Amino acid sequence: MSDRQNVDSQLGAGDPRRIGSYRTVARLGRGGMGQVYLARSPGGRPVAVKVVAPELADDPEFRRRFALETEAARLVGGFYTAQVVEAAPDDARPWLVTAYIPGPSLQQAVQDYGPLPSDALRVLGSGLAEGLAAIHRSGLVHRDLKPGNVILAEDGPRVIDFGISRALDGASATSSILGTPGYMSPEQCRGEETGHASDIFAFGCVLVYAVSGRSPYGEGNGLALQYRTVHGKPDLAGVPEELLPFLTRCLDHDPERRPTVEEALATFTTPVGDASWLPDPVRAMIEHRRAQAARLPPEEPSRGAGRRRRTILVAAAGMMLAGAGAWTASAWPDRGEGPPSTTRSMNPCDVLDNKLIQDHQLTDTGSPGGYDSGALRVRTCKWATAEFGSAEDGYQGYYTLAYGPASLELVERNRHRYPVDLKGLSGAQAYGDASEYPHACEVTWRTSFGRATVYADQPSTLIGGMGCDNVADFARSVFPKAPM
């Protein structure tokens, strides 16, 4: 679900009018794993209710994970988080309820009215640090802290959406490529173990966004953001000078050198008395949302009233499992969206077989990933290959197969058509990022769901020369197996 868009609050014919003891009164939006509703508790309080999508409700492994993570999230206390009120993981359509917070996300506030002033940054940092402390005390790692998951309330920020958090097993951390490009730690980008230090990295990225209006790793497609995070340096322009040393430590590539959440609390602790910490336009947004929630009917609307249309700006929906912006291996596109591509799997990792491994010297079985930023939903699978050189000599190369919308472009710098043999690839085009020896190359073709792309991005010593020919050969191998 995108926190930028306005959504129609009218309940549709297929929407439930009651979920457990909660009466639904409006739609808040759709997240990566289900529909979110504004509802009223039996006592009349507004709450956010997330109902899991049918295709996921039928997955036993998802149900098991949902139950474990929901129970863990319910243990999270603290003032600066959106509380999980109730959950029903065993229902035919699992659901959970969180507190409804009538405020804009940090992302929307900054996009609409610009970066926050430095005084507000200190209040924001204090609240986020306290929210993370509560999450970490409960044995969780949030793993998707980003501007869209921070709600600005009158009395301080709230950390929401533990959608891809995981409970720590003792002292061990968790791993898998989940998160939001531009706010993921380097270890997350590499699919390595992620612990509390990964949340501190995201904490630093969010604060940079708050005062600059951008991620410290810039903008662009998710793969490019991943690469910059792992190999580049953060852009800290606009950060107050007194906070530069601390935020530089937060964004250290080495998790061991990042500050702890306790150090963050000590750095940012500041009292919050009232809404004066927020700029006037943001305070007005909060009042608008509160008024909209108050105007929702206390009883079931009449047939005539049910036809009246309202618009509610999306606010906190609480714990939204694998929600928008998360790198995830969930099904894409959603059921009912767009034309069927064929019966071939929409999981790009499913094209792998023994012949593909042998023909292209693949050295692992594929690494699934992808991301969902609302307007751009992409599924990927990445394989290591020896075709570009020897891994022992430090020349490991990789192929990525991506399924995405028609606008998907993985080569973004100095992009131009590259002359390469595309025989057997009907309608395909090749692109490189240099006139003669590209260090990034893609072969891409249109499909019924948008676009399929084979991509390789390595130092010029690896891809140069025959590199794009290798990419085209790999594309020929996967072309007959990819959805059309």
3D architecture notes:
By secondary structure, the chain is α+β, with helices and mostly antiparallel strands. It has two domains: 1-325, Transferase(Phosphotransferase) domain 1 (Transferase(Phosphotransferase), domain 1), CATH 1.10.510; 348-478, no CATH class. The chain has helices spanning 54-57, 60-74, 106-113, 118-137, 186-189, 196-212, 222-231, 244-250, 261-268, 280-295, 303-306, 354-359, 460-463, 467-478, and strands at 6-8, 18-19, 22-31, 34-40, 46-52, 84-88, 95-99, 140-141, 150-153, 156-159, 166-167, 174-175, 193-194, 311-313, 367-372, 377-385, 397-404, 416-417, 429-432, 440-446, 451-457. It has a seven-stranded antiparallel beta sheet with strand order 15-16-17-21-20-19-18. A six-stranded antiparallel beta sheet has the order 2-3-4-5-7-6. Strands 1-14 form a two-stranded antiparallel sheet. Strand 3 (22-31) and strand 4 (34-40) form a beta hairpin. It is globular, with a radius of gyration of 23 Å.
**What's the structural domain tally?**
2
Structural class label: alpha+beta
Uncertain segments are 1-8, 167-176, 301-342, 459-466
The neighbouring-strand order within the major sheet is 15-16-17-21-20-19-18
